[in-house]
Amino acid sequence: MIGHQRKKLQTMGSGPVALLLIAPAFVLFTLFVVIPVIQAGYYSVFHWNGMGPASDFRGLGNFRQMTQHPVFATALQNNLVLIVVSLVVQLPLAFLLAMLVGRRSFPGVMIFRSIFFFPYVLAEIVTGIIWKFIYHPQVGVPTMLARLFGADGAQIGLLGEPNAAFSAILVVVVWKYLGFHMILYIAGLQGVSKDLEDAAVVDGASKLQVVRHVIIPSIRNTIVISVFLSVIGSLNIFDVVWALGQGGPVHSTETLVTYLYNFGFRRFAFGYGSAVAVVIFLLSFAFNFLYQRFIVREQTNG
Amino acid sequence: MADSTARPISGAPQARTRRRFPVVRFSVTAVLAAIIFFPVYTNLMGGFKTNGQVFADPFGLPRPFTLDAFASILGRSGEFWHFFYNSTLIAAATILLTLAASLAAGIALSRISFRGRSTLYNFFVMGLMFPLTVAILPLYLQLRDFGLLGSRLGVILAEAAFSLPLSIFIITGFFREIPWELQDAVAIDGGGIMTFAVRVCLPLSTPVITTVTIVTLIMSWNQFLLPLIVLSDADSFTIPLGVMQFQGQFTTGWNLIMAFVTVSIVPVALFYIFLQRYIVAGLTAGATKG
Predict the structure, then answer these.
(1) Between chains, do B290 and A35 touch, taking CB under 8 Å as contact?
(2) Nearest CA in chain B to A125
(3) Superfamily of structural domain A70-301
(4) What are the start-end ranges of the H helices in B47-78?
(5) Chains A–B, number of C-beta pairs less than 8 Å apart
(6) Hey, are the CB atoms on B42 and A133 less than 8 Å from each other?
(7) How high is the ipTM of this complex?
(8) A46 in helix, strand or coil?
């Protein structure tokens, strides 16, 4: 990783000095990241309430229990839906925004850019609360729209509706992270060769063709990163979902992390909760591995 | 493209001339901006209304315009100021700890040759693969065993620990790029590694220090899960926890909730307006760590 890329004039510092400098970071990182991560793996095979030593060994029992729990299935499914929506709805929208405000500018373009980016700066919890009012059953936007179109006295409480609540949350998630991906694409667009684009236009390419054959291939790296962050972020979503209903109504909006919190932490089921954590990690890891292997590698070769 | 030779004559000059005001593009952008800003707008207005008005006219302008909700949030109970103080304290301490630990480690990992250097570097960077959520339960037990449950220090230590992989990655990468001639020059003048670190590296590090500060600040300021499990006493709550609790207490007083949310957004908004350039640079640097 680190090559000795020079002829040394004089070696500076020594092993002990280096270790002394690294020590604070090492201790902090080991105590609060490495050990807990390893423990999560260890506890995942026990039935344990966090008191005394973990001794009730269950083998893969926790994982088996998970596969039989319908709420876990809902959580997993919600996470997958979220990933699909992020990739199919959020990323194209973010790209569109980047195309609108990221290039040849018009007056006020920076203001628009800030407006699009602003939701990302908000705390997830704050985002959730703002949207809770937008979805308010009595005066929220869905209710008002329904009344506008003639349904007098309609009351639409999407967040209270098990069949609709998660869709309502999806809207909030897309709203929240759209601006972040837009910024990534704007940065990517700056690397697109203007000459190449002009050449395509000169050759009679339509705007769509320019986007399809010049711009998108040029920002491939950015897309690769944006997809990666979307998937990993989706697997770990918690705050927004929590603020909009803590996984309810009747567990319909549960995601893997709210499931971990509700069925692990809240019930002092540290073994079971750790098993859920292991599943989340394995999913991220598997994705990371396959992605690096098949997508990122291809990119560095091509 | 049969006519590719004919086109340049008519096409090229057009592409080079200054474009007129892009009406369609502007209109589409404006409509999207209005839709995207709408929830924030609703909240901003709501704080200046009476609760009755929030429900009578949820999306209109405040009429009459009242500061009662803000007065009640910022006055009397002073709860908000508690939360604000806690968030600031935790974020500041987390940033300082993260910077100190990763600048020191970064120097050693980039500038001193010793056995096991790349192993140690990989050990830290491997941490990028582990989000906080994966370790949250054992982390809770770990903090409990250290007697740090309910304490802000517990939140600070854990947040700093999880910030280390990215900041060490960014800082070490930056230090590696500092020309070796500078290190040799220090050596010729009889200086050691600390002289080099303090006199040469640190003054050059403003960009990475800014990046790490911003990334850590946003992470800490918005962090919810960790303080949720660690802090139990409302006196030590951060803003996200406070907002959540406040919202639970006053489910019917939406003007109060909205005023509270607005006040909690102000520091973030100011921060964003003044540091926009750095924030975007910082986040893009953080994101492209791949």
Answers:
(1) no
(2) B240
(3) MetI-like (1.10.3720.10)
(4) 51-56, 68-74
(5) 296
(6) yes
(7) 0.89
(8) strand
